[in-house]
Structure formats: C-alpha cells, structure tokens
Amino acid sequence: MPKKIPLVDTDIHERVQYQELLEYLDEPFKHYIQNCHWIQEKHMPYTQPSVAGVDRADAVIPDGRPAGSDLSFMQEQLLDDVGHKFGILTGALDPSPSSMHGWYEMAAALASAYNDWQIDKWLEKDERLYGSVHVAAQDRDEAVREIERVGSHPKMVQVLLPIDDIMWGDPYYHPVFEAAEKHNLMIGMHHNEPPVYYGKWPRYFIEWHTLIPTAHMKQVTNMIFNGVFEKFPNLGLMMIEGGFTFIPHMMWKMDQQFRDLRHEVPWLKRKPSDIMKKHVRFCTQPSEELSKKDFMSLLEQMGTDEMICFATDYPHWDYDSPHRALPNLDRELKEKIYGENAKKFYPKIPNSRERYDEGTSRL
Questions:
Q1: Domain limits at 254?
Q2: Of 128, 166, 289, 308, most Cβ neighbours within 10 A?
Q3: Is residue 304 part of a domain?
Q4: Where is the Amidohydrolase-related domain (predicted)?
C-alpha cells in the first residue's frame, strides 16, 4: 500500500478577538481596547461574498465565535480531518500592526501581544502548528526589537509583512530582513487590503479580487531589484494567497528588463529569474482551475518544480481543498508541492522524508 503524503499547509488563518489580547497588553494600550473599544481601521469598500463574510459558513464556531478563533474546532475540521503534518499560521490580518496608519506605539504593542497570544494559545498547544512573527514594520526599529524578542522561538518560522501600501524592499526596511535572517526566519507576505487600481480601489470586488496578484508581483519585483536577496543570501520570501500562474510572466519580464537596464541596479549579480527560483516561493491558493497539461506547462515555463507550496487558506470562503484544488499529479511531484517544497523552504520545520507514514494526510 503506498505511503501517504505528509501535507504542509502554508496558509492557515487563526483569528484573535480583541478581548483575548487584553491579558498580553500593558497600559495604556489595554485601556484603549477594554474601555474605549478600539479596533483597527479598515478601508475596503466592499462586502465579502459569503454569508459568513470572508470565511466559510461551516467554519464559524457553533457558539457563534468567528471562524479560526478556536483551536479545538480547527483541529477537528481541518488538521485532523485532512490529516495535516504541519501548518503555518498566518493570522487574520485583523489586527495587522504593519498596516496601521499612524499610532506606531499602539501597533507595536499589538504585535507583541499577538505574538505572545499566538505562542501561548496555539503553537504550544499543537505540535503540528508553526507561527509567524507579527511586527509593526512601519516603525522599523520596533520591528527589529520584536523579532529579537520572539524570533528565536523554535516554532516561529517567518516574519509576516502585509501587502498594503508599503514597498518592503526599500533599504529603510533592510534591518528587518537582517534580524529575520539572524533568527533563521523567512519573510511571509500576505495581502491585507492593497489598493490595486493606481493607488485606489476598483469599482467592484470582483475587479479587486482578480487583481490581487498584481500587488504580489509589485512586492516581488521591489524586493529583487532593491537587492534584498543579494544582501541577505539566506533569506527567503513566501508569497501567500496570491496564486502562482503569473510566475513565468514575471520571470520573463524581469529578465528582459535586467538585460536592458541592469546598469541601474549594479548590486544585482544574478538574473531575476534565478533569484526567484532560489529565494521566492508562492502558495498555491487561490488556484485557478487547471488541467494537468496546463499545470505541467506552467512548471516547464518556470524551469523548476520547487517554487510552489500548497495552501488551503482555511477558513476563508475560497478555501482550497487538497483533494480538489490541483489536478491529479504524479506522486513525486505531488510530494514536492504538498510538503517537501515548504519543508525545504522553512529551516525550522522538521525535514525528514523517511517519516511519510506518520500522521500523514489522505492524499
């Protein structure tokens, strides 16, 4: 009987409720939430397309709490049911400290409280779960201090930055990457509410949702041409929830520009496509419906089968099932995309191929 494939899910959204952060906050920040009912401002003008908002209706906790807010329910509905080997927590981007416009002190306090809550309530409660360090990166020095504070935790695998209105490749933010590299952390980027229409919002949600990959493309381009991966050779970047079918176009376009305009970025010593292959990974979700022929053609155009990593995006409404999201692939390729690529990317995740038959998924 063939051994099952260990699934590494690179995008699971755990959700905090603001009241849960109180025990991890100092004054006066605790007061602002407890007595002033502060919540982070949001900008999206649309409603989400499901009755449960951004989440699956069946993922809402039976007692009425939001989806992703209860570990036991998530274990039953996702980790145990699918049979995860490992899962990477990416937060629910509410709060998203790095997306706050102003009040940097509050953002930094929220980031620290969130990290402590995440470690206490999730990472230390389930050995399958690994976490993301939340920071208020607009205050670069505070972000570095937070990475120094919790980055050495054995189950923190990446620093999470939102894709919003800051281009993170700017040299001003390089100390954040230096601190991440020091603690063997990768960088994870997940869109929050990026304005994708020339700095504004398109008229309809369907336009915004279609164009999210363009925000991801901007960040990858910015990180590469600003020399982040030449400066920090052990750093990796995981692009979360933007899909992957645009990768070949990005490689061709950046390589062409590099041939014509490389004099402008003399610190770049390698072709952008080679940098992408070595340093950048893309979560599969949301995957377009592809035939096996389409999928294999994309891999051939990328020139590697190691750049994409499976993600469910649980508990969002456009969740990708590991049984249905991708075409039926050959076993060796399936092992890479559903587990090995992510295990190879994150240095802190156990990476032993011989344990395929232990706690594996039903793939």
A1: 12-37+46-345
A2: 308
A3: yes
A4: 62-347
User: Per the domain annotation, does 278 fall within a domain?
Assistant: yes
Cβ neighbors of 63 (< 8 A, separation 6 or more) are none
Whole-number pLDDT of residue 355: 45
Residue 328 phi, psi (nearest 5) = -70, 110
Residue with tokens 């995006």: 313
The per-residue pLDDT for 363 is 64
The pair of three-digit structure tokens given for residue 18, joined into one six-digit string = 């603001």
Using a cut of 0.70, tell me whether the model's pTM lies above it.
yes
| pLDDT over 50 at 210, yes or no | yes
CATH number of the domain where residue 153 is located: 3.20.20.140
Enter the tokens of residue 227.
């020399």
Task: Report d(CA 112, CA 117) in Å as an integer.
Answer: 9
CA gap 363, 257 in Å, rounded:
41
Number of domains forming the structure of the chain = 1
Task: Answer with the residue of higher pLDDT: 361 or 246.
Answer: 246
Are 160 and 133 in contact by the 8 Å Cβ rule? The answer is yes
Residue 6 lies in a domain: no
DSSP state letter for 287:
P
Joined together, the tokens standing for residue 138 give 């607009």
